[in-house]
Amino acid sequence: MQTVDESSAARERASYSSRKQIIVSSIAALCAGLVASLTAVLLMAVLRLVAGVPSPVELFGDRVLKLMQAGTFVNFLIRFGSHAKTVPLGLAILGMIGLGTVLGVLYAMIARVQLPASGYRSTRREWVTAAAFALLMTLGATLLFWTETAQNFFGLPYAWARFVTILSLLAEFALYGVVLCIVYRGILPKKGVAGSTQAAQNRRQLLARACAAVLGAGATAGTAGVIEGLLNNYSSYDGMGTFTANGFIPPITPNNEHYVVTQNAVDPMPNLDVWRLEINGLVANPGAYTFDELQKLPSTTRPITLECIANGPPGHLISTAIWQGVTIRSLLDKHGGALSNARYVAFYSVDGYSISQPLDVVLQADALLAYRMNGAPLPNRHGYPLRVLIPGLYGEENPKWVTRVELTDHFVGGLYADQGWYHGALHTLTRIDRPFGKLPLGQTIEIGGLSFAGNRGIQRVEVSADDGVTWHDATLQPALSQDSWVFWTWQWTPLLPGSYTLTARATDGTGAVQPSQKQGTVPNGATGYHYVTVQVA
Asked: Are 455 and 393 in contact (CB under 8 A)?
């Protein structure tokens, strides 16, 4: 039986030239980096699923999206179409795995293991290098994503969410470092050991490399399974509109037909055991509420129409519901009111979404923190357990899944504000819902639709059947509230056959006539009249 002696060990060392040393170490480092990355990604996915912790990929996405301009963001959505969330998410995961793989080479350069390696135990230098990697990556991610870390999809309060996110980053990167250190040492070629046969050493080396491969494959399969579980709740309803039936639409939109827009691939599902509403900042007496405590406060109920900034004159991203909740004014009064230097109200959501508005705008609109919608508990896609409603502003300024209300002396940005989207009073909208297509000659036709100007209200609607040459007053139905849309009709009898262009315009409650100038939705919201062409025969 042949054993390995000192002379053969010397020959082994001599057989590793500098070039071979670099090549073998790099290959082993790339393999170890890949396995470590896959393992860390599995932990990230598990923490996202069981604890609602945002993954580094999501934190990165939130950060990058804020740096985009509005036009670039819209082009990005158009380019990826129905996969605008899943494809970039998948590419970001692959990019993170690729980066972790390449970092394995940097680790090998710093660890400087001489080949062939002596045994399977990592040295102190290797462990210190791995620990430094974990700490530096955690510190870098924390600094880069500091604003984004204060989110938790289960609804942990703001400060706790940040703490748990940073702790999770440390755990994820520490796992990466540990696996990198162990796997790299394990798969490197080893020196011969006196008293052990070459065949036995080869079997042990093969077993170590097989374990590394199984670990990588298992992590890949586990990650795929967890992601599949998450995507079972994919927010496929994003961009859903509220459409008419034969030119009519109900005054109150059913919950399952209300338009929906969300920034998330998978919307948060807050847990009431951990969720809290925090009232803090420049307020006399900061405080916090459980959901039960919030529902015991005096509440109000009223119809409010919401419209997305991406809704053009003929669009259907507009709906009305009856909302119940606590007004911001009454809540601030309960906490002693705003301090003298408070100028803005900032709202933070469990998914990291944030907006701010001038305090006087929020109070003048009698903004609402709503927890019921059309008599039912707030559906998850509409912001369960609590959402903001600020009448007169576009939907993006009415965040869902709210967990924190903060009074500040400065403007606080967020996804849409940072991209340069308009965040002032919404523009007056008038939409023609009927008639359409071919119409009979000489018969009275009802032209009907809706107008909306936020909390400014609508005092007049005019309709034209000759492309705006002459105008006629429409009949207005009573508004459900000052904050809701208004339905209108006008009776028209075409006396000559041919093509007609119908249009309509509204005058809001302040006396301002809807502007005729056509403007696209990006980035300031659409303006202009809605035109409908019909054929009379």
From this structure: no
pLDDT of 49 higher than 50? yes
Residue 93 Cα distances to 137, 176, 415, angstroms: 16, 15, 21
> Is it the case that residue 312 has pLDDT exceeding 90?
no
Of the candidates 419, 444, 460, which is a domain's last residue?
Answer: 419
DSSP per position, 76-105: HHHHHGGGTTHHHHHHHHHHHHHHHHHHHH
- Same domain for 106 and 158, yes or no, is yes
d(Cα 451, Cα 445) in Å, to the nearest integer?
19
- What is the domain count for the chain? 3
* Rounded to 5°, angle at Cα 71 from 66 and 73: 45
Q: Do 119 and 84 share a structural domain?
A: yes
Q: pLDDT tens digit string along 162-196?
A: 999 999 999 999 999 999 999 999 999 988 766 66
503 neighbors 467 (Cβ within 8 angstroms): yes
Mean of per-residue pLDDT scores for the chain: 94
Does 214 lie in the same domain as 152?
yes
Confidence bin at 202 (pLDDT 50/70/90): confident
Same domain for 260 and 160, yes or no, is: no
